[in-house]
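Ticket #4471: structure output looks truncated?

Reporter: J.K.
Steps to reproduce: submitted the chain below (732 residues) through the standard prediction queue, then opened the result file.
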Amino acid sequence: MVGIIALLSLTFGLPALAAETLVVTGQEQPGLNIGSSYFSLDSRSIEELQIQQAADISIYIPNVDIKNVLGNSNPVITIRGVGLHDSLPNNDQSANVYVDEILLVSPAMMSFQLFDVERAEALLGPQGNEYGRNSTAGNINFTSKKPTDDFYADVAIGYGNYERYSTDAVINGGITDNLNGRLSMTGDWSTSGHFENTFTRNDYGELSRWAVRGQLSWSLSKNNQFLLNLHSGHDGSDALTNWVAVGVYNPGTTTLCAPALAGNLQQTLNQCVDRLNFQDKDNDPFTGTWDLEPEKESYQYGVSLNAEWQFDKTQLTSISAYEGFDQSLQEDVDGSTAVGFHIESDYFIEQFSQEVRLASTKPFNIEVLPGKLNWIIGGFYHYDTRVGNPSQRFNFRDWLNDVLLVDFDQSTTSAALFTNNEWQFTEQWQLVFGTRYTWEEKEFFAKTATTVPFGGTSGLTGSTNPFSNSRDNRISANAFTGSISLEYTPTENLLSYFKFSKGFKGGGFSGLATSSQAQLDPYDQEELYAYELGFKANLFNRTLGFNSAFFYYDYRGMQVVTIPFNATVQRSRLTNAEKATVLGVDSNIIWQPIDELEINTNIGWLDHQIKDSRFNDKDLPNAPKLNFSNIIRYEYALSNNFTLTPMLITSYQAETFKSVENTPLIQSDDYWLVNTRVSLQQGKHWELAAWANNLTDEVYVIDAFDQSGQGVYIFNYGMPRTYGLNFTYRFD
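Returned output as attached by the reporter:
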């Protein structure tokens, strides 16, 4: 059987398989020898669940929230309530995203297409002892399928509503005795969109994107392996999501109206207006009067070399990588035919990283202590530069008689040493401990200028003269972080552990438009102290797997975006809250009552408060207090080697605030999503699948921002119902 969800353990890391394993959806769950919150999807799961971008996996991971903020790009990632609600390219997320062990440092780079993927993983909680860069929230890893010497190829084509077409192709095999190659490519495009612009009479939301990856694997000897990875991609799509503006002023004033303050959307639509007394009253997020239709043009490219040397009891790994990214984007934020709030952005990112790890491949005996020791020691170096000149152009012609130009130039240098060790001192007890030292430095220049190109008086400054503020700055930080976990395995089917870990994320600078020098002040580093108690059990002849992790976070110096109301100009600022606390549970149940039926349920629960005089006892943003997903898959064998496989996927997310101020209207209501898929497969040769996502056509908010300084709150909505057919043929 080929599966949906493989290695679904929320309570352990990346161990070898146990001697006896629970077979779920054709895959074996890992053995019980590491205590850590971990989740994984195999390649078949990614295909069946229609996962095409990083944001798509969050439905299937408890207490993980990922959303694309700018059109179809720049995702914001929140894990167990920890995350920076800022999508600008110069800021780092609290969670790290890796593709083939390469860190993607900017949110702008995390909208890549997923194709030919071996697995996707999420590690929840502070990370940094085993690889890569330190993080407070966790890590998300995507690993591509690697070249092998067996020849095979496959091709897939798809068609869906909105005249959407897709194609994927792979060719793999040996080139010489010790050289293997793999070429993978994907394309996705459409000729119709799900937005209707009643002003231009156009629809938009069209797709146009492709990506390609070439890999060469060279075995110099049985102890030497080299893997060269070259990849590139382009996205010229319209935005798949669009900002919907809701006016929040009393007519003829610049004061907030009562329904908006109370959080009543329908009354706000009926009674409140923007700066020009405009309001779109139909409450349909997929129609509007945008005079500037959203466009995006992005290119991403890179090369990496992974080298491994095997010795008697150790393995040396070196990973060298370069990544480049270039993006331009335009959006209409005001939602009207006026040039009230138009955004154009353009920026370029380059990064280089080098990692070296030496790890034991066989347990070491400890002469002075009982038991055996496995260990990793390593070093990590990273440099990146992010430039926007101008990075953003805010056109407020009709609202404020002004245009803002925002420039920034930022470089980051980071270096670290780390180690992780597993000491099994009895058959049932193991101590896992590690530490990390991190040093980083950021240099930053930013400038915001009002140009008053239309003559008259600027509504931002009250002056006829242009205004600008700028600053050169540099910050540095260093920190020791680490974790220690005590694990108890009374039998091979039971595991419990207690883990303490400390996470660290360095400070930074705001790439937002600024109207004062204070907004250019850097924000400080944040620290997270995590306490976690985890359990795992394989029950009833290994047909039922249960995993739970209970955790408490002491979150200090939390990095936040604050937006205090000002009727003249929005004074958004990145700063630090004093602290926050998070209490939560991740739970996963896998049940296979009969061979043909698989049921996978994930539940996440959070309780959290910010402890700060500015927003005391407020909820953390982007952290639903309850989230749930359930996957039911039934595999029915027909005659002549045919298999029919229906699937039903349901998910739920509780209401969620989208601002640290917990502004009543700046939130998403609770919602359910229903997806389904039915496939007919003939052996391993071909498969025909019909699918539908958001089957009930639920209307739900992905994100929302306070732009009340310009007279609106803006909302970003999820995709409406989509459906289609996919056909895959495999050549052996």
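Triage note (M.O.): checked the attachment and the full token line is present. Confidence is low (pLDDT under 50) at residues 1-32.
Status: closed, working as intended.
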